[in-house]
Design a protein that fits this description.
- The complex is a heterodimer of chains A (174) and B (131).
- Helices cover 88% and strands 0% of the residues of chain A.
- Chain A starts with a helix and ends with a helix.
- Chain B is 18% helix and 47% strand.
- Chain B is of the alpha+beta class and 131 residues long.
- Classes of the chains: A mainly alpha (174), B alpha+beta (131).
């Protein structure tokens, strides 16, 4: 009994110090992990926001092009609107869309680019026009699906992040 | 209401019958029987100079390099979505795009990924009908 008291008296403060230090290290490590996952999530949110902006701009350009192509009377064709939208689309295809790197969208955009490159408004062939409009619609739907998919992924990550940040609180309570 | 109208228009445009089909494209390529097309690479030097498509799936390819010769092969059309069409000529797969020049004359564009798949560059060739 005396031996135990002696042991506690001599090693107690040291043990207390070790336990405090361990607690401190664990807290710092948890805080650092939390900060890392928060900044990763922030980065993903920022990327997702940029991606949605690119998809919206692409959809707008395609929508304008398709609206012009859908005009069956060549006299109604607004050449300046078509050329402006074509330039917007090509700038997105060769530039910003590569930032997103969605291979399905890019492959369809490449095909769309080939069609509009030398589109002839004087040609009223319905197959020619409808193929282009359908391809445009397909790209818009693919962009939308890709956008929704990344939003779902982001929500899942936000959820798992909130669960993991809630977990240490539970352990600290008990 | 506007959104519903947009979805309806989108769906109706997808289900619309006006589009290239395998029959229509086969007819364009073969003119119902056999048709010859001059071949010209726009961003690549091609050995092929003339393609003669036959409705039975055979193709005659006239080459000039390294020396003039003619080879026989097969061609097949395929699609995954009925919008983008691909043509297999021998062992080469190209996307097939129907286009019109400024005078309204129909021609065909063939595109395929550059041999170095790391780049996003596509080889493009133009097929003009031979009389």
């Amino acid at each position: 009994m005396e031996k135990l008291e002696k042991f506690v008296a001599s090693f107690g403060p040291l043990l207390g110090f070790i336990l405090t230090a361990a607690g401190l290290i664990i807290s710092v490590s948890n805080f650092s992990k939390d900060q890392k996952s928060k900044s990763a999530l922030e980065f993903k949110r920022d990327f997702w926001s940029k991606q949605s902006d690119i998809y919206l701009k692409t959809s707008q350009a395609i929508g304008n092009i398709c609206a012009e192509i859908n005009k069956t009377d060549p006299a109604d064709f607004d050449k300046s609107n078509f050329l402006k939208s074509k330039a917007d689309f090509q700038s997105l295809y060769w530039g910003e869309m590569n930032f997103v790197q969605d291979s399905v969208v890019i492959a369809d955009m490449k095909s769309f680019d080939q069609y509009i490159k030398d589109f002839n408004p004087e040609v009223t062939n319905i197959d020619y026009r409808q193929t282009l409009i359908k391809l445009g619609n397909k790209i818009i739907v693919t962009c939308r699906n890709s956008y929704m998919k990344s939003f779902d992924n982001l929500q899942l990550e936000t959820l798992s992040d909130s669960i993991s940040s809630a977990a240490p609180m539970k352990s600290s309570v008990f | 209401m506007k959104q519903l109208l947009f979805i309806f228009l989108l769906c109706s445009s997808f289900t619309s019958k006006a589009q290239y089909t395998i029959e229509k494209l086969t007819n364009i390529l073969t003119d119902g029987k056999t048709k010859s097309w001059s071949v010209k690479g726009t961003n690549i030097d091609l050995a092929e100079k003339v393609y003669t498509f036959n409705i039975n799936g055979a193709i005659q390819i006239q080459k000039e390099n390294p020396k003039p010769n003619t080879i026989l092969s097969k061609w097949v059309l395929s699609t995954k979505d009925n919008i983008r069409w691909f043509i297999q000529i021998g062992d080469q797969l190209n996307e097939l795009i129907i286009s019109y020049d400024k005078a309204g004359k129909q021609y065909i564009k063939l595109t395929r990924q550059a041999t170095d798949k790391k780049t996003s560059v596509y080889y493009e060739s133009i097929l003009q009908p031979l009389k």
